[in-house]
Amino acid sequence: MTPALQKMWISFIAMGFMAISIFLIYISRYKSKGFWRGLSATIAYILMILAGLIIIIVVLSGPTT
Predict the structure, then answer these.
(1) 17: three-class secondary structure by DSSP
(2) Cβ-Cβ contacts under 8 Å for 58 (sequence gap 6 or more)
(3) For the segment 38-59, what is each residue's pLDDT rounded down to a tens digit?
(4) 16: Cβ contacts below 8 Å, ≥ 6 apart
(5) How far apart are CA 64 and CA 12, in angstroms?
(6) Residues 41 and 28 sit within 8 Å (Cβ to Cβ)
(7) For the chain, N or C: smaller number of CB within 10 Å?
């Protein structure tokens, strides 16, 4: 697999993390209570931060040929 394809799949994983975090934030704000609310929000924010870091690394690593 070429480096360009690897970067593409890594960025897809980051976008998936963002989608999962949107879903978890919705669940934590409107559907859950107590411990589950805090747990889902914590997981969502961790995934969002991780996705942001992955995207920054992919973008700043430069173009591939």
Answers:
(1) helix
(2) 7, 10, 11, 14
(3) 999 999 999 999 999 999 999 9
(4) none
(5) 17
(6) yes
(7) C
